[in-house]
């Protein structure tokens, strides 16, 4: 439990409505650069998220609550230490982070989400309202910057995996390196939002039909239309180099009709207008690949720069080692901060006060 919880150091403290006299008691205080209390109510709010539905003994409750309390203390220690070092995250940096999230969602949905849709997706995936999630990410970015400032050689200290380690990992997970039948394609999409009216749907269909008439079967015109779709005001969106594996997990997102058409077209062919849950698409097949078990030297079919199975395994192993080194470095920094005189005071007698 301690290791699992320590991977995500920062907790968002969400005050709940209603309180008792005990809730107003201070259970811990962080005094690194100023006195910052942690109230019983704050600890109870966080603890109840994990204790819900579980039957715990008195001792198990005490240990769990103390672990969570220590994580809350560690968060405040790190943030105060970062403030002391004048480490902060600007709004531009935070906005840049969220722009990357938006770009990822856009690629997944096939359309750019509106502000309302984006906030709803964040709430669905994290359980947090967007302002609260932004605050959490800000704290995490500050903590990361502080860690890098104190442990500048952390990444370079991580040893790359050996060829034997890569081979052992490949053999262990070999059944997961099976490439299904796959097509690579470029697409033009007139997107539809959730709950689109019949009129909006007809308008989107007419737009897609008009684009297809302009293109015909001319692949050069299709490529030109793809480039236009990546500019503001095009009226549609587009992308190159998407991969579509033939698997049942995609049925809900693209539909059986889309799969049937995509895998029936030869390389270089342009489809007609295809209706999907996300809107109306026109695709051009740019590559076809048969199902096979990948070797270490095979290139993975995925967006971005080419990467072999060997490179992916090496990257995964390296990332795992970096994560372990980061946790260790984080624990060392927190231990140093806690060792400062009067940095932390704790009143454990309140751990079982509810």
CATH architecture annotation of the domain at 178-293: Roll
Largest sheet: 4 strands, antiparallel
Q: Count of helical segments?
A: 12
Shape: elongated
Estimated helix fraction: 40-55%
Task: State the end-to-end distance.
Answer: 22 Å
* Structure summary, number of beta strands: 9
> Could you name the CATH class of the domain at 178-293?
Alpha Beta
Strand content: 5-15%
Which structural class is indicated by helix and strand composition?
alpha+beta
Order of helices and strands: HEEHHHHHHEEHHEHHEEEHE
Main-sheet strand order equals 5-4-7-6
Mean pLDDT: 89
CA-atom Rg in angstroms: 26 Å
> Would you tell me which CATH topology of the domain at 178-293 applies?
Chitinase A, domain 3
Q: Which parts are unreliable, with pLDDT below 50 for 5 consecutive residues or more?
A: 1-18
Walk me through the structure.
There is one protein chain. With 354 residues, this protein is an alpha+beta fold. It has a domain at 178-293: Chitinase A, domain 3. The chain is 51% helix and 14% strand. It is built from 12 helices and 9 strands. The chain has helices at residues 2-7, 40-51, 58-84, 91-109, 115-126, 130-150, 163-172, 198-215, 219-229, 251-254, 256-264, 309-338, and strands spanning 26-30, 36-39, 178-179, 182-191, 237-245, 274-276, 279-289, 292-293, 344-346. The protein has a 4-stranded antiparallel sheet with strand order 5-4-7-6, sandwiched between helices. The chain has a 3-stranded antiparallel sheet with strand order 2-1-9. The chain has a two-stranded antiparallel sheet with strand order 3-8. Helix 2 (40-51) crosses helix 3 (58-84), helix 3 (58-84) crosses helix 6 and helix 3 (58-84) crosses helix 12. The chain is elongated and about 75 Å long.
């Amino acid at each position: 439990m301690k290791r699992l919880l320590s991977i995500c150091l920062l907790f968002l403290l969400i005050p709940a409505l209603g309180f008792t006299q005990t809730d107003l008691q201070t259970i811990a205080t962080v005094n690194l650069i100023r006195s910052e209390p942690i109230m019983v109510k704050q600890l109870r709010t966080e603890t109840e998220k994990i204790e819900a539905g579980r039957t715990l003994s008195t001792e198990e409750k005490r240990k769990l609550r103390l672990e969570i309390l220590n994580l809350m203390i560690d968060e405040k220690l790190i943030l105060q230490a970062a403030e002391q070092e004048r480490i902060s995250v600007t709004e531009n940096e935070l906005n840049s982070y969220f722009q990357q999230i938006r770009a990822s969602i856009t690629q997944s949905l096939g359309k750019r989400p509106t502000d309302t849709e984006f906030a709803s997706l964040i709430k669905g995936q994290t359980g947090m309202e967007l302002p609260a999630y932004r605050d959490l990410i800000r704290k995490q970015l500050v903590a990361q910057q502080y860690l890098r400032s104190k442990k500048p050689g952390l990444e370079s200290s991580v040893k790359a995996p050996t060829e034997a380690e890569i081979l052992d990992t490949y053999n262990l997970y070999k059944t997961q390196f099976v490439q299904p039948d796959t097509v690579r394609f470029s697409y033009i999409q007139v997107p539809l939002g959730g709950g689109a009216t019949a009129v909006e749907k007809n308008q989107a269909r007419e737009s897609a039909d008009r684009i297809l008439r302009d293109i015909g079967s001319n692949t050069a015109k299709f490529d030109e239309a793809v480039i236009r779709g990546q500019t503001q005001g095009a009226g549609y969106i587009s992308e190159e180099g998407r991969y579509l594996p033939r698997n049942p997990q995609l049925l809900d997102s693209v539909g059986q009709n889309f799969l049937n058409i995509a895998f029936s077209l030869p390389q270089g062919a342009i489809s007609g207008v295809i209706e999907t849950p996300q809107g109306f698409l026109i695709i051009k097949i740019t590559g076809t690949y048969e199902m096979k078990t990948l070797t270490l030297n095979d290139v993975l079919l995925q967006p971005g720069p080419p990467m072999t199975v060997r490179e992916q395994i090496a990257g995964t192993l390296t990332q795992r080692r970096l994560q372990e080194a980061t946790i260790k470095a984080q624990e060392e920094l927190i231990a140093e901060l806690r060792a400062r005189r009067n940095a932390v005071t704790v009143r454990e007698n309140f751990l079982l006060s509810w």
